[in-house]
Write a structure and sequence with these properties.
The chain is of the alpha/beta class. Helices cover about 40% and strands about 20% of the residues. It contains ten helices and 14 strands. The two termini are about 40 Å apart.
């Protein structure tokens, strides 16, 4: 499951401590699945929901823990030096059950282990959205559309744990916000993706012009060339990486999962993936035996240093929620 490091301009836990949360997430995911799977094999699944009061108590304890640590940290603990590859693999993370709290809610007995796994991952996806929109002390308002976003679900649920996903992040460059498209930071490369999707079987006719032609049945319309967004993303990343001395290749992809792309000639240094080539392309994308690496962390951190964030204190969030419910 790819790690959703940044979603739009929402506050993210990964912004607070990138060197810590990826390893915590991987461990949490593994531990909770082993626990749920073991219960399933014993025929002892707990099908009751967690009480709301329990979650609220945990958040209170989480805040207390956070405040306590603010006063107890020493200079060595507050170092922001990025881990090297060996440290990333061998890092021992102290337990923070409140920070990491994730308890799958098994609301019915699944008929198979595969069904249990789908149920588990679906709830883990919602947990990822929580991490990508909140910290111990802040929250962002999450647009409900992301709960139903099929591409976001696909990328987070199907890609490996060692991938960092930036989903339409907003960077602040020269005091101006710039929204990018999809960026996946792999251990050995960066993939920039621009989506071209409409109705099933739509055809996109590409060219070197500013606009492409979209054919939907018998009708035609113009769409902005995805190359513009791709080239802008590449240019921004190259500038950031040059400044931060980051050496990772950038791969550009125009993606249409449900349509066709026709581009006469060849698109310069850009991969065109449509409904015909998508299954093989995505299968290859999922196959990455490399563990998380130092340069990958460095690249992700460089982007996080530039992101724009809109968030609210938890106290303010909770007060407004209470007013709305009255």
């Amino acid at each position: 499951m790819a790690q959703l490091v940044k979603l739009q301009d929402y506050i993210s836990r990964y912004q607070i401590d990138l060197k810590r949360y990826p390893t915590q997430f991987v461990r949490l995911k593994k531990q909770q699945w082993e626990r749920v799977n073991a219960s399933y094999e014993r025929g002892a699944l707990d099908t009751s929901w967690i009480e709301k009061e329990q979650e609220e108590d945990l958040e209170v304890e989480e805040k207390k823990s956070f405040i306590s640590k603010l006063f107890s940290r020493n200079k060595e603990e507050t170092s922001t030096e990025i881990l090297d590859e060996k440290e990333v693999e061998n890092q021992e993370v102290p337990e923070e059950s409140t920070t990491l709290f994730f308890e799958p809610n098994i609301v019915y007995n699944p008929s198979s282990k595969e069904e249990l796994r789908r149920m588990y991952l679906d709830q883990l996806f919602h947990f990822q959205l929580k991490w990508a929109s909140s910290t111990l002390m802040e929250k962002s308002y999450v647009d409900p559309k992301y709960m139903r976003d099929s591409l976001l679900r696909l990328l987070t649920l199907q890609l490996p744990d060692n991938y960092f996903l930036f989903y339409y992040p907003i960077l602040k460059l020269k005091k101006a916000p710039v929204e990018l498209d999809v960026i996946i930071v792999l251990p050995t490369e960066i993939i920039c993706i621009v989506m071209l999707e409409g109705r099933d079987l739509d055809a996109f006719i590409g060219s070197g012009d500013r606009f492409w032609v979209k054919k939907s049945g018998k009708s035609e319309s113009k769409v902005l060339s995805p190359m513009i967004s791709l080239n802008r993303m590449e240019s921004i990343l190259l500038q950031v990486f040059k400044k931060e001395d980051i050496d990772l290749p950038i791969r550009k992809v125009v993606l249409s999962r449900n349509g066709y792309i026709d581009y006469p000639g060849s698109a310069y240094q850009t991969q065109l993936v449509d409904t015909r080539s998508f299954p093989a392309w995505f299968q290859a994308l999922k196959s990455s035996p490399s563990p998380m690496k130092h340069m990958q962390f460095k690249a992700a951190q460089a982007l996080l240093n530039l992101v724009q964030t809109t968030s609210y204190s938890r106290a303010s969030w909770e007060l407004e929620s209470e007013i709305e419910n009255e």
